[in-house]
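Exercise: predict the fold of this chain.
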Amino acid sequence: MKIVVDTNVFLGACLGTGAASAVIAACLSGHCIPLMGNALFNEYEDVIGRKELFGRCRLSPAERIELMDIFFACCQWTRVYYSWRPNLPDEGDNHLVELAVAGGAEYIVTRDLRHLNNMELLFPQIRIATPESFLKEI
């Protein structure tokens, strides 16, 4: 099963949030295939560099980078050829939908349901799920 994992889920895994950690573990074990594209890769790189987000983190900076590298190694690189904009209230989230459409993802796993559940364009094959609800599905 192909999924798009939003950066807020990876951040949660680094902070030790159970469901977010389990989603990343499912990707690392091959239970699902995370998709990665240019925009999402750049967002991961940006988030991992924000020290203020990791104040309560149980992982050192080196361990976070290592986890991210291991996660990237299990991702399926996906090129996005078409923009589906305008679509979401938050322009910064459109790349997640575009990646999911381009890669044939079944899920976008995120904590940002408010923006992603308010798409103007509908893609019925893509479900938006929190880490908790995604884990119940798999």
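Check your answer against the key: The chain has one domain: 2-137.
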